[in-house]
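Page 42, continued from yesterday. The earlier attempt failed because a stray header line got pasted into the input along with the sequence. Redoing it now with the clean sequence only.
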Amino acid sequence: MNKTLKKVLIFILALIAVVLVIFLIELLVPRQSGGPDLTSPAVSDSPSPTPSESASPSPSLSPSPSPSEDGAVTTEETADGTKYNVTIPEASASYSITADSALFTHSRENGSDLFKSNKDESEYLRIDFVKGAKAAALAPSIMDSYINYTNFEQSGQNYIDGTQISGETVTADDGKTQVTAWLVDTDKGVLTVAISLSLSDKASQTPQLDKLLSSLTINE
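This time it went through. Structure tokens are written below.
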């Protein structure tokens, strides 16, 4: 074997040895991952969207109640019963009245205050305001809104029972129920105070209604 061929063989053997060493190094030493792990799901760098403020609306706030044109009512408890303080903006006036809740129930509709007996619906006290009216002119027709009467009497100015408040007074009945109304003039209209009772129970209902009337005060 000549020297040239011997050098070639040595080179080839050396090359094979180097390749084997590199292969063993790659096989035995763990590969450091510098690139992305293709087996794991990709994580997006973009931030997740934040929920819109309108997604969960804040609770709406209801406006505070305010007195209507018909007026406003406040109550307070007293030794004699519940005292109702009523303002009438259109009349520039106010009034108060005290009712025993065991005898009468208060309700309000279209500016009218009604104190109805808990035992007999024909027994009640009702207070209304008629804007721009005059008592003397209103008196002849006022009973049409209370009762389908067969008897009618207009007796002029009289004090409301148990008070120093006077008004044009009218009384009417249909043979079963009697209604008496006092029409009190104010600067801007007429305050009507009407009581109704059953004629068959007049003796027992009159004292209850008189006590209710006697607590009435009017301020202008």
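Notes: The longest helix spans residues 3-28.
Reminder to self: strip header lines before submitting.
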